[in-house]
Design brief:
This protein is of the alpha/beta class and 475 residues long. It folds into two domains: 19-114 and 269-471, Aminopeptidase (3-Layer(aba) Sandwich), CATH 3.40.630; 116-252, Aminopeptidase i, Domain 2, CATH 2.30.250. Helix content is 29%, strand content 24%. It has helices at residues 3-14, 27-46, 50-63, 189-192, 196-199, 223-236, 271-285, 316-328, 333-342, 394-406, 428-433, 457-471; strands at 67-68, 81-86, 90-95, 105-111, 116-127, 130-138, 151-158, 164-169, 179-180, 207-210, 246-252, 257-259, 265-268, 293-299, 345-348, 352-353, 375-378, 382-383, 411-413, 423-424, 437-442, 444-445, 453-456. Bound molecules: manganese (II) ion (2 copies).
Length: 475
C-alpha cells in the first residue's frame, strides 16, 4: 500500500468529524423526519405559553392512558402511566419501570416557558388618543426585536368573583393583532446612534391596543381607554381592576412555518424550549415497559432563573419522586427518596446555540453545534470559567454517547459560544443538585430568544429518538 493511503486510512480511523445528519437517514427515515415536523409545528402554533403547553401535554397524556396519582389504583405496576400536574404550569409524566423507583429513574426535563412581553399589573392607559398596554419583558430578549411585530395576547384573568377567564387573541385568521411601534428612519438619527441594548428601552415596549373613542358621551376624559374597557367588559366581563390578577402575555402572532426552498427548517416563536418539550413528550408516549422508571418533566420559569413554585428549583419534582417511592415502600421512605435521586440519570433537554454563518465570530467553530448535525450534547453550559453550571462527568457523557452510537442517532458535541463571549444556563444544575447524573442534550437553534427561532427538522427528529431510547433502548 502506498504511504499516503495508509496515512489517510489511519487518519480516518483515529480522528473525529461530526457527520451531516441528512446524509445518514434512509428514505424511510426522511419521510418520518418530515412528518414528525408537521405534528411539531401544530404544537408550536397551538401552545405558546407554559399554561397552554401544560394543557396540551395533559390532554395528550390522558389520551394515551396516563392518569393522576389519585385516580390510579393503589398498586403501581411496571407500565403504569401517571401524570403530576403542578398549578397548570408545570407537569411531570411517569411510566413505571420494572425496577423500583428507589433504584433510580431516567428523567428528561425541558421547560415550557419562553421569552415574551408580560403585561404590567396596571397595563391600560391612553396617550394621544391611542390606548396602550404597559409591559415588562420576561426572560432575556433583544428589545429591539419586538417592535413592529404582530403580537397575540395569551393568558388568564381572574375576575373579582374568582372566575378565571382564558384569553387567546391574535392567532385565528380573522383576529386582530397587537403591536409595539418603532420610529421611522427619518426621525431616528439619535436612536440609530444608541447602543443596541438602548435602542428600544424597556418602558417603550408599549403595546398599541386601540384608537376608537367611546362616542356616546364626549365629555369623558379618556374616551379611547373607555372604549377598550367597554369592549373588555362586554366581551369577557373584565374590569380594569381585574387586570391586576392576570397572567397575560404578548407573544409573536401566527403559526410555525417551514423555512427554505427545501422546507428543511422550521421557523417559529418559542422553540426554546418547546422543541425539547415536544420531542420528549413524543418519545415518552412511545415508551411501554422501561427497565427504570421513565419520567418526563416540563418546567416553567426557566427563562428567569427557574425560581418559583413551578420552576425547576421548586420542590415539585422531589415531591413527585417521593409520591412514587412512598407508593412502593413505606420502609425508610425518606431515605429511599434520596437514594432514588442519587441513583438516577437525567437529560436536561434544552436548546443550544448553533453556529451562525453570519456571526461565526462569537463561536468556536471546532466546538459549536451546527444545524443539521443531530442533537447537541453539551457537557457544560455556564460562562467564563465554567461559572454557574453543572458539568456532566466523562462517565455519563460516555454512556450517552455509547447509547446514541448504538442506535445510530446523529449527535454532535456543542458548546455555548467562545470562552468569555457570554454564556447561559439550563435546568441541568438544579437536577444535579438533587444528586442525579445530568447531561444537557437538545436541539441546536439559530436566532435563539428571537420572535422567529430556527431549527433543522433532522435535528428535531434526532432529539425525539434520543429521549425515547434513553428511557427504553431498542433491542
Ligand atoms: Mn431554554
Ligand atoms: Mn432560553
Amino acid at each position: 500500500m502506498k504511504e499516503d493511503i495508509v496515512g489517510k486510512k489511519l487518519f480516518k480511523t483515529l480522528s473525529y468529524e461530526t457527520q451531516l445528519a441528512w446524509d445518514h437517514v434512509s428514505q424511510d427515515q426522511l419521510r418520518q423526519v418530515f412528518s414528525f415536523a408537521e405534528e411539531y409545528k401544530e404544537f408550536l402554533s397551538l401552545a405558546k405559553t407554559e399554561r397552554e403547553s401544560h394543557d396540551y401535554i395533559l390532554t395528550k397524556a390522558e389520551k394515551h392512558g396516563f392518569v393522576s396519582l389519585e385516580k390510579s389504583s393503589d398498586k403501581l405496576r411496571p407500565g403504569t402511566k401517571l401524570y403530576f400536574s403542578n398549578r397548570g404550569r408545570s407537569i411531570a409524566l411517569v411510566v413505571l419501570g420494572q425496577k423500583p423507583v428507589a433504584e433510580g429513574f431516567r428523567l428528561v426535563g425541558s421547560h415550557i416557558d419562553s421569552p415574551r412581553l408580560d403585561l404590567k399589573a396596571r397595563p391600560l392607559y391612553e396617550e394621544d388618543s391611542l390606548a396602550l398596554f404597559k409591559t415588562q419583558y420576561y426572560g432575556g430578549i433583544k428589545k429591539y426585536q419586538w417592535p413592529v411585530q404582530p403580537l397575540a395576547l395569551h393568558g388568564v384573568v381572574v375576575l373579582a368573583n374568582g372566575q378565571r377567564i382564558s384569553l387567546c387573541l391574535g392567532e385565528e385568521p380573522g383576529d386582530p393583532v397587537f403591536c409595539v411601534s418603532d420610529l421611522l428612519p427619518h426621525l431616528a438619527y439619535e436612536q440609530m446612534d444608541k447602543k443596541a441594548k438602548n435602542v428600544v428601552s424597556g418602558e417603550a415596549l408599549n403595546i398599541i391596543v386601540g384608537n376608537l373613542p367611546y362616542s356616546e358621551d364626549k365629555d369623558v376624559k379618556e374616551r379611547v381607554k373607555l372604549g377598550i374597557l367597554k369592549l373588555l367588559y362586554d366581551t369577557y366581563g373584565i374590569k380594569e381592576e381585574d387586570l391586576v390578577s392576570a397572567d397575560l402575555a404578548a407573544v409573536p402572532a401566527g403559526a410555525a412555518r417551514d423555512v427554505g426552498f427545501d422546507r428543511s427548517l422550521i421557523g417559529s416563536y418559542g422553540q426554546d424550549d418547546r422543541v425539547c418539550a415536544y420531542t420528549s413528550l413524543a418519545g415518552l408516549l412511545d415508551v411501554a415497559a422501561p427497565e427504570h422508571t421513565a419520567i418526563c418533566l416540563f418546567t416553567d420559569r426557566e427563562e428567569v432563573g427557574s425560581m418559583g413554585n413551578t420552576g425547576a428549583r421548586s420542590r415539585f419534582f422531589e415531591n413527585v419522586v417521593a409520591e412514587l417511592v412512598c407508593r412502593q415502600t413505606t420502609d425508610n421512605a425518606s431515605l429511599k427518596v434520596r437514594q432514588a435521586l442519587a441513583r438516577s440519570e437525567a437529560l436536561s433537554a434544552d436548546v443550544n446555540a448553533a453556529l451562525d454563518p453570519s456571526y461565526a465570530e462569537v463561536s468556536d467553530k471546532r466546538n459549536a453545534a451546527r444545524l443539521g448535525y443531530g442533537i447537541s450534547l453539551t457537557k457544560y453550559t455556564g460562562g467564563r470559567g465554567k461559572g454557574g453550571a453543572s458539568e456532566a462527568s466523562a462517565e455519563f457523557m460516555g454512556k450517552v454517547r455509547r447509547l446514541l452510537n448504538a442506535h445510530d442517532i446523529p449527535w454532535q458535541p456543542g458548546d455555548l459560544g467562545k470562552v468569555d463571549e457570554g454564556g447561559g444556563g439550563t435546568i441541568a444544575q438544579f437536577l444535579a443538585d438533587l444528586g442525579m447524573d445530568v447531561l444537557d442534550a437538545g436541539v441546536p437553534i439559530l436566532s435563539m430568544h428571537s420572535p422567529f427561532e430556527l431549527a433543522s427538522k433532522v435535528d428535531i427528529y434526532a432529539a425525539y429518538r434520543t429521549y425515547k431510547v434513553f428511557w427504553e433502548p431498542e433491542k
